[in-house]
Amino acid sequence: MSNTDSQIDRDLHALAESSARRLPTLEQTARAVTDARAKRSGGSIMSIIRKPMWATAAGVAVLAAILVCPVPYSRTVGYELTVTNAAGRVAKVRVAGKNAAFAERRAAELRTHGAAVVVAARTERVWGSVYAMAKDKLLDVHVDLSDGKTDAEVADDIRNQLAAGGWTADDVQVQRSADGSSVSIVGHDGNGRAMKVVRQAQGGTEKDLDFQVGGIDDEREPGMTDAQLRDKILNQLKARGLDGDVVVDGGRIEIRAKRSMEVDE
Amino acid sequence: MNDGDKQRRLMELLAPLHDAARMTARRLCRSHADGDDLFHEAVLRAIAHVDELREPDKFRSWFYAVLLNVHRARHRLSFWRRLVPLEDSRAELVVDDESDALAGAQRMARALATLAPQEREAVVLFELEGFSLEELAALQKSSLSAVKSRLVRARGRLRRHYERRERVTRPLAQEQS
Asked: How far is residue A196's CA from residue A87's CA, in Å, rounded to a whole number?
């Protein structure tokens, strides 16, 4: 067997292993199917494009904004003050809470006693949703496409707006043609939190590009079951006009949110 | 049979097959997200037609036939061909000890995407799912010899894809080192 064939076999095996990751249960499938059937009566993106009248309609664009999660990220759970006194003795003090200003005030108090104090954030790595990590940061991104911007300029505009909102865009891909467009954004904020937005359009020409990042509360309140937390997230997605597919399984939250719309040229 | 009854019946029949069929759907697509969409679409179609299933003991082949029909129908729709695949965020934000395996899986998913739908199905069902050539022939409504040719052709295309990729990536890797 050649090296190439061995590589193909190894990769086939890897693909088989990978497809078993985070496999939804039968119950989750049943729930998703029930939701999909309910939504189809109102017309989902799938049912719209299945109808020939839509497939051949001119001057109509179908747009979808999709957020996929979960993603691993670090979050600050408190602060640690390293205090060194004049004799060189070192002590560490933990400050609970996420308020950096409070930790700095504590450090300032200790400094008045002649100690050298270094403040460092204590972080933990968790899995959560893009919404969870950004729930205090609802960011509106809007790009006017009617003024002849190139794809690269649109990408720069998106980067700048994300930067203004505290996000660093790691990868922004913008591709537009007469057939449609696709925009893919992967970014993170200053605390190592990540987000991903994919927007796809078919047919027609877009005059505007706008989407929101964050703004959904997915904190589990005391005593809340998985189903209740799922409903809480779904209601927020619905309120924002998004079709949501939410899986809550203990500490794992997976949200896929879509918005589909028809835009007249 | 009303829609609720149809869904309950389908779910009962699907239970022993659920995990394997969902994995098949994922393997047929370039990302788990696309595979899960394909699987849901197949389940929805199966629910609509489950009252036409006369022999429940043949559910496995019946459901896989539905899955493959949906897979090919999606490929035929120009809409889906134009869209970029939905990559999995978890694949991109991978922990180090899993990166090699995931890179291999992504490499293969990309390679399979270059095959024609029926070739991709043949590779996935025969090489990964353990379907026999006869079962595959029945599912693809092809003769045994056609299925064998398809598998040989698909393997050849995969090999050429990997060799082309190697020619491109090796000089880059050497430059970087």
From this structure: 50
Closest CA of chain B from A248, distance in Å? 16
The domain defined by B114-177 folds into Arc Repressor Mutant, subunit A (1.10.10)
**Residues forming a β-bridge with A201:** A63, A181
The answer to whether the complex's ipTM is over 0.90 is no
pTM above 0.90, yes or no: no
- The CATH number that domain B1-95 falls under is 1.10.1740
Structure tokens at B74: 């999606």
Alpha-carbon gap, residue B111 to B113, rounded angstroms? 5
Residues B93, A194: C-beta atoms closer than 8 Å: yes
pLDDT tens-digit map of A2-27: 788 899 999 999 999 888 888 888 98
Domain ranges, ordered by start, for chain B: 1-95, 114-177
Is B47 in contact with A33 (Cβ distance < 8 A)?
Answer: yes
Whether the ω angle into residue A72 lies within 30 degrees of 0, i.e. cis, is no
Angle CA B83–B86–B87, to nearest 5: 135
